[in-house]
Design goal:
Blueprint lengths: L9 H6 L2 H15 L6 H6 L1 H4 L1 H16 L3 H22 L5 H22 L5 H17 L9 H15 L4 H14 L1 H14 L2 H6 L11 H10 L3 H8 L5 H5 L10
Helix pairs in contact: 2-5, 2-7, 2-11, 5-6, 7-8, 10-11
């Protein structure tokens, strides 16, 4: 059974570790709140009602594709395309193609940023591999104007950040919802974690200070992970409502879902 992502791919290493996936989630939560097309998820009512669950489901869906057999992954991508078409039909409008690309680009960017924060720097071939996996997801979604390689993507990503992000009433509301669902302590952790991975444009728009209080904690956490002491830390820090889902994020690289 041919996998969608090769068994020895760095993409499986990135998406098979719960802490890395959580930083992908954190970065995506920050940037998505600024996206000019975020009103589409407000239209369904699902995002403001459960912003963490909605974003977590997006990340979980991507993870399932990464660890699925090729045929099953392609079917999942097709289902995702059909779901969005249904939303478009209900609203009587079309989600702009750039908005789809923005979400895809977030998954690429934060996959690399999260892994490099918690593990090591990726070499150019590995970054190309990350890009290629999500490039194939984009093609399966029917997206147009996707850069053909990672080097070309870098400049397009920069343009998207410049053109597609803005602070709005949706930004305010989403962060209020994050705080409501997380509580003060975990919300503060989310903000400090976001500072570690978001690009400069996002940090400026969200008025983030350049220093994160978690910077000294990162090497300590890496040591705890090396000593297999990271699970108790995550158990204390993470919302109890999502603990089961988060524990399921740790997946051996050779596993098929």
């Amino acid at each position: 059974m041919k996998p969608f992502v090769k068994y020895d791919s760095v993409v499986r290493k990135i998406w098979g570790k719960s802490d890395t996936v959580l930083f992908i989630f954190a970065g995506g939560a920050a940037e998505f709140a600024l996206n000019k097309a975020v009103d589409w998820l407000y239209f369904t009512g699902k995002l403001p009602a459960d912003p963490l669950g909605r974003l977590f489901s997006t990340v979980s869906y991507a993870r399932k594709i990464v660890f699925a057999p090729e045929e099953e992954a392609n079917r999942a991508i097709g289902r995702m395309r059909d779901i969005h078409r249904s939303v478009e039909a209900n609203r009587g409008d079309v989600i702009p193609d750039w908005a789809y690309r923005d979400v895809l680009f977030m998954l690429i960017y934060y996959s690399i940023a999260a892994f490099e924060l918690l593990e090591r720097k990726l070499n150019p071939e590995e970054k190309e591999e990350v890009y290629n996996v999500f490039y194939r997801v984009g093609l399966g979604m029917g997206l147009r104007e996707l850069p053909e390689n990672y080097a070309s993507w870098l400049s397009v990503r920069k343009q998207h950040l410049a053109n597609d992000l803005a602070y709005s009433e949706y930004t305010d509301d989403l962060f209020l919802q994050y705080k409501k669902h997380l509580g003060n302590f975990r919300y503060r952790l989310l903000i400090e974690g976001q500072k570690l991975v978001v690009p400069e444009k996002v940090a400026i728009l969200l008025r983030f200070k350049s220093y994160s209080m978690l910077i000294p904690a990162v090497p300590v956490y890496k040591l705890c992970k090396y000593l297999k002491m990271d699970k108790p830390i995550k158990s204390v820090l993470l919302p109890s409502d999502y603990k089961a889902q988060i524990n399921e994020l740790d997946i051996p690289t050779g596993k098929i879902l």
